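Hello forum,

I keep getting stuck at the same step: I have a sequence, I want structure tokens, and every attempt I make locally crashes halfway through. Rather than fight my setup again tonight, could one of you with a working pipeline run this one for me? It's a single chain of 312 residues.
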Amino acid sequence: MRAGAATVAVALDAMFGEPRRGHPLVGFGRLTGWIERRLYRDHRLAGVLAWSCAVLPLVALAAAVEWFAQAGSPWVAAALGALVLALAIGHRSLGEHAAPVAAALEAGDLDAARGAVARMVSRDTVALDATQTAAATTESVLENGCDAVFGALFWFVLLGLPGVVLYRLANTLDAMWGYRDARYRRFGWAAARIDDGLNLLPARLTALAYALCGHTPGALRCWLAQARHWKSPNAGPVMAAGAGAIGVRLGGAAPYHGRWLTRPELGAGGPAGAVSIRRALRLVRDALLAWLLALWAVAIALNWAVPGGLHA
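Reply #2:
Ran it on my machine without issues. Output:
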């Protein structure tokens, strides 16, 4: 039933998006803040303990809830899974954040574009010109296609409700603790490494979907030649394949915390602009549809192979 639940979750996200108030991750953020204040030490083991206290009880609770729901009715369990997955994915949110940047660039309003992209990225957006603003937005769309959409789908299909809860909480903790600054270099080590591990396969499946749904030769060529040079083992394949798929140049120098950092170049083709942002959004959408079709194809094939034993 996970193919059906995943499809319903994507439809719910498309119709309603993320809750404006009362999102569970807001409560989780408060919980992790409380845990950090009590367990923080400049040591890796402290980070491991804090991560475990924040995530493992909620994953165990999710597993118990799914078990009891499944025992009562598989349909109730599927509906619950669809609801939680809809809260975990952010496909509609990508468009709600990125489309205003493209619209502002098309209108020639760089200040508005910078203000909009500041809600998506951590770099110093006031220092960006129009091309750099478009590149930052395009990069964010491509990378968050994995983090906000495909990673959650992957772990839901693989492990059900506890899988998607594990992935989303781990990804959230990476965003909170996974920095390489003085405070989190050791304490956030576990959060960063666990998130890397959970994204290892989803990132490469995302890159493959980008390649198949865009300019395939260019995407594969950029993936193979450029991904290994990127500092993140998972963002590299996703962004290189995505940039190659839509024919745009990304990467390069970017401002962070008052200084410009040199980054490898990704992709091939023309410079980023409003068009590349809209192409990236379409690529994520097309890749999502491809994932759902592949999931249904596998579910139907398994039903035929084991009549009555499995359900879509």
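The chain has one domain: 2-305. If your local run keeps crashing, start a new thread with the error log.
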